[in-house]
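>> received
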Amino acid sequence: MNVIPNWMRHYQKSWLSGDVVAGVIVTVMLIPQSLAYALLAGLPPEVGLYASILPIIAYAFLGSSMTLAVGPVAVASLMTASALQPLAATGSADYVALAMLLSLLSGGMLLVFGALRLGFLAHFLSHPVISGFISGSAILIAVGQLKHLLGVQAGGASVFNTLIQLVQGIPHTNGVTLGLGAGSVLFLVMARRYLAPLLVRAGVSTQLADIASKLAPMLAVIVSTVLVALWRWDETAGVSIVGVVPQGLPTLGLPDLSASAIGQLWLPALLISLVGFVESVSVAQSLALKRQQRISPNRELLGLGAANVASALSGGFPVTGGFARSVVNFAAGANTPLAGVISAVLMGAVIAAMTGLFHYLPHAVLAATIVVAVVSLIDVRTLREAWRYDKADALSLLATAAGVIVFGVEVGILTGVALSLGTLVWRSSHPHIAVVGRIPGTEHFRNVARHPVAVEPGLIAVRVDESLYFANADVLQDTVESLVAAQPEARAVLLVCSAVNQIDATALGVLTNLEHSLSQRGLVLLLAEVKGPVLDRLQSTVFGQRMQGRVFLSTHDAFVFAHRETTKRPPMVDGLPTSAL
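>> returned
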């Protein structure tokens, strides 16, 4: 296997300028985000910077996306805090060590999934569940950051306790902190909404204007840091600041691999892996399609796994592909993962020599960048569309969001997954079964309740619109029995199996019993449009052998056979021909 990635072996000089520009721009964006998301995860600020160097390089060698920007993100940071806060004091050395272990476990799982080619896991979580989880997490994150905007102490076991403490703390609000935080929120919202159009009207290209609007958080960080440093608001007004950020590159090493810690963190690591993978693949896929490129889910597993292992070894915490940074990376002209490598090198330079610049950075401004970033993740549009189209999906979305808000991220996402799987099982256990007839003058057959069709006297023809398995086989039998009871003149029952992709052992037993029961009452069971793989498995069974000569390629052929057979024999009553009564 060639260890040099394909993009590197075929690199073109014409790509370099775009990669360099994108790398510089993403670095400017990544600095405040790294600090903010470390704060969100309950970690020292330098840990966010550490998680923005080696993980990016590791992904560049194994990932498949040309423009995905890997690093700390809001949802993974929240999940990290949720997993670690019950286990250690926030920000302590033990807490940092557990964060590293969480990243190592997550990375190891992703690498194993990639080696086993489990890329289909990207489809394991439905879109409504992901939307509900991210929306609930966004609300949870925003509420958790309000204490930094107000400059008060608040932190409860639940979002409601936090809100109560925030209300109780309002009289103690720090005015300068609130001014910095609220001002930053207002500036960031206005920049996001109006800066790009203003720059376009001023003659700036649309692409550059859009990038500039996304770099507004860096401007807020610079201005607020200068203001606090000049007027020493940390001392005169009690503004909470980042303080000393250790200078120097991270040291490499393994976290403590105690069995008890692994036992406590394996489930959070699994959930972080799944959510991060699904989120990254969706972002990478959407960007790749714009350039007619392709991504490999299995390679994404390997790339993200390597990134998280690298983060753990360098003192970081779980990382994944970020939506906003990836969009900026794409728009800035990134052609290959070299843009990410350049960003990582620049971040290394920042950590090695410039961390002193962050000393007076107020926590309120970092909180403002988080709040503005996550509020845009609240997905009301998907909820509206799901409610109009499929209320079961909409309820799954709402239940997932509510679970996250009330019980926490782990319970919330497990609730969403359980509801999605439950909905899937419920739907498949209640299959649509239609009585069909022939559209006059054709060989097409449609639902008698929806179309003007002709039915064959003595024939009950039903189409099963679902694979048959243990949860729905009895429903089919009950439906057929009720139709037979309602039509005593019936001489044959036809099952149209065009939508049946599988018949499990339970369903096979039900079909065997149904065929035997119908036969005893003088009715013949017919099958039509059975798919090849299904028919192959049936042929070696007792049921398949009994059905010899009664399995038809088309519904038309079955109708012709039924017409011929039912006109040969007199109708039956209680298993006896009427001529014998």
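>> The first strand starts at residue 69 and ends at 71.
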